[in-house]
Amino acid sequence: MALVIVFNLLFPDGMNEWHRAMRRGGIASADQVSAANSHAYVGTAILALAIVRVCLRRVQGGPPVVSEEPAIFRLVAKVVHFGLYAFIFAMPVTGIAAYYPGVDPAGSLHADVLKVVLWALIAAHVSRCPRPPVHGRAPFFDG
């Protein structure tokens, strides 16, 4: 899931070109439509994966909380994880609203505000990864 999210964050060019073409003249080339569709399909897949992930999390539960962590780190981890979950839903929903029915404010929110906040959440999440394992847990796979 992380790979497809990073893919769409790093390669929005097709959607950007389509959006510019639609704003300027209302006609997009076949290549622009194809690239925009690819971005939209990946975003829709992210939404589907997010739904599956939340369902699995509800059934299986989350990883155990590391009680040896300072309370502030546990709090920050909860806030960041909540934010990541919120954004793996908010980004596709606003993108779908912008692309298919053409809700312009959703597109601005999606491409400008939410994308920046999502990058900040990803940075906060990744910044805690390279730490020593606790109780045999691998440092890069500690949900």
Automatic annotation (TrEMBL):
GO terms for molecular function: electron transfer activity; heme binding; metal ion binding. The keyword Mitochondrion does not apply. Its cofactor is heme b. One of its GO terms (cellular component) is plasma membrane. It comes from the Bacteria. Its main location: membrane. The chain crosses the membrane at residues 76-100. It holds the Pfam family Ni_hydr_CYTB. The keyword Zinc-finger does not apply. Keywords: Cell membrane, Electron transport, Heme, Iron, Membrane, Metal-binding, Transmembrane, Transmembrane helix, Transport. It is a multi-pass membrane protein. Residues 4-126 form the Cytochrome b561 bacterial/Ni-hydrogenase domain. Belongs to the cytochrome b561 family. PANTHER family: CYTOCHROME B561 (PTHR30529), CYTOCHROME B561 HOMOLOG 2 (PTHR30529:SF1). This is Cytochrome b561. It comes from Rhizobium tibeticum. The lineage of its organism: Bacteria, Pseudomonadati, Pseudomonadota, Alphaproteobacteria, Hyphomicrobiales.
